[in-house]
Amino acid sequence: MTSTLLTNVHDILSNESDKNCHLVQGNYQYYHYGCDGFDDRGWGCGYRTLQTLCSWLNLNHKNINRVPSIKEIQEILVELEDKPKNFLGSKQWIGSFEVCLVIDKLYDVPCKIVHVNKGDELEKITDILKLHFTSFGSPIMMGGDVDCSSKGVMGVTVSERNTSLLIVDPHYFGKEQSKEYLQNKDWVKWQPLNDFLSTSFYNLCLPQVKAKNQI
């Protein structure tokens, strides 16, 4: 089923001619709830965002000929002793730190964790995000506490009025649809920074590797 996954679902919203728009470089597949026939609704969003990042790494860095399943991701985290054995087969969510561990294990790629204390302080990391997409071009995983919904960040656009992040949301559940459908339903969207929860902290995982076309 995963062979039918949509690729680069953000590109209908990208504006590469805008000098204030900084985007992911290279191709990736869009992983979301149930996309492989396994129903992970309500807890699997972190795994799905990790899978999206892994698909990018396969296509743009080192192809390990698979994207790890949720089961395999859990096995890796137990093997690394980050999680206890009863984590296997559980519905426990994962965040940006666990994503870093798995990417390092599978691809030998270090990740940078950027912590933001409150959503209304996201503006402070705008330059970090711009530099990341310019220097590396890899997709970013974003998670939080009150806002515990994992999401992929595929770009940042900066203007005097507002800064927005290009969000690819893994919470979609259903048959594969068009990019236009995902956009119309806000599964893929530009989200202004002031729309993020001011009461939530956020952790972002930035894989420190360049796309092949960036080297």
TrEMBL record:
Family: Belongs to the peptidase C78 family.
GO molecular function per UniProt: deUFMylase activity
Domain spans labelled UFSP1/2/DUB catalytic: 20-205
InterPro entries found in the cross-reference section: Papain-like_cys_pep_sf, UFSP1/2_DUB_cat
Record's keyword annotation contains Protease: yes
Entry superkingdom: Eukaryota
Name recorded for this polypeptide: Putative Ufm1-specific protease
Pfam families: Peptidase_C78
Organism: Papilio xuthus
Annotated keywords: Hydrolase, Protease
Any one Gene Ontology BP term: proteolysis
